[in-house]
Amino acid sequence: MIKRLLAGVAAAGVLGGLGFLYYAWYPPIAPIERPNPASFSAEQIERGRIVAAEGDCAECHTRTDNGGGPELAGDYRMDTPFGAIYSSNITPDVETGIGAWSEEAFRRAMHLGVSRKGVHLIPAFPYDHFTKMTDQDISDLYAYIMTRPAVHMSRRPNELPFPLSLRILQAGWKLLYLRPGVYKPDPRHDALWNRGAYLAEGNAHCGACHTPRDLMGAEKKGSAYEGAVVDNWIAPALNEHNPTPTTWTEDELFQYLRFGVAPLHGPAGGPMSPVPHRFLSTVPEEDVHAIAHYFADVDHAAEREKNDKAALARAMEESKTDLIGPNVDPDAKLYQGACAACHYNAAPTPVLGRPDLALNNALWLDEPTNLYQVMLRGLTAEEGQSGVAMPSFYNALSDKDMARIAAYLRRTRTTLPPWTNLEKKAAEVRKTVQPVPVNSSH
């Protein structure tokens, strides 16, 4: 009896293994001659440029360390809990890029996460979002990429330990998390909402940064847009749990995504900065409106913005207190000397270019990470509001100084509990920032 039972278990295991291998196997797709750029129309190439911009393709497929690299040639380092991963060269170079890929092979990679050779791609390439893209958008993107300059450049090998380095294991990940299929419009919403949802959920893959991940590296189900840590910054929640006292309304979202600064929420810094400045500023305005329209619904802006007037008035009043009388609070004096001259605002609303910190995400998050990042890095004239810079305080403020300013702002600008271990956290964030030369300026 026991022998028969063990035999049955073994047989089931063998059949299950064979079934998994059948599921995991994809045939190679034959290489082709690099397509002639003249075979694509100017209209299709321009549509593809828009698709590439809305998907931020160049952001993750262009090396930024070691002096940088050619656009789309890959080798961008992504640090993950599993090890470092380097992006692929997606220029039309035949040997090191995807010049030998047919449109069929390209579409399979986008929709199913499988390379031309039949190898499973690591989901650092967010095919779980790209699977929702239409064939037309993928065809246009293919046309755009195949007409870019071919760059002969290999990427560094991934630094994944065994057995995570085995690509067949990605098939198991897909079995659990990938739901292939093009986005289907929701009949409960209008065309603008559905366009925004299609872009946000698909090509723009907003959840890849703004949704927390589980132990398998997948976006947590039921936690869409709850916020996550990305490149040593906190990508804030995009839903109703965003903690800022004024609502991210459709107009605020549009201003931020199109121009890199929202009047009541401040500028886009860190990993978010290229999104408005390099990409969404170059696409049709109606698409940016669609994304803003979608997320204004996700965060229930229409129901929440009734409290904005009182929150704004309170923030303006708090901003004035820093400049009233001889303040005996030593932390306030430090803040006045380092920050208040540029961040002071008076009623009725903040001046564009003078972000009011009482309204900024950085002070309302669970950790002071983003506040410290901006203090240490500053913002160049190309980030945030165009032409407006913030100097780096990397050399001007010690970890203790930053901790004092953070504590002061948290207790005077928010209604939230104080942050803890502020000086230790300042030191930890400093380690993630390149030292700023003493004589450098923004």
TrEMBL record:
The keyword Repeat applies. One of its GO terms (cellular component) is plasma membrane. Heme c 3 binds at residues 339, 342-343. It holds the Pfam family Cytochrom_C. Residues 43-149, 191-299, 326-413 form the Cytochrome c domain. Heme c 2 binds at residues 206, 209-210. PROSITE patterns: CYTC (PS51007). The chain crosses the membrane at residues 5-25. Its main location: membrane. Its cofactor is heme c. Heme c 1 binds at residues 57, 60-61. It comes from the Bacteria. Keywords: Cell membrane, Heme, Iron, Membrane, Metal-binding, Repeat, Signal, Transmembrane, Transmembrane helix. Binds 3 heme c groups covalently per subunit. One of its GO terms (molecular function) is iron ion binding. It is found in: Cell membrane. InterPro entries: Cyt_c-like_dom (IPR009056), Cyt_c-like_dom_sf (IPR036909), Cytochrome_c-type_DH (IPR051459), Membr-bd_ADH_cyt_c (IPR014353). This is Membrane-bound aldehyde dehydrogenase cytochrome c subunit. It comes from Acetobacter pasteurianus NBRC 3278.
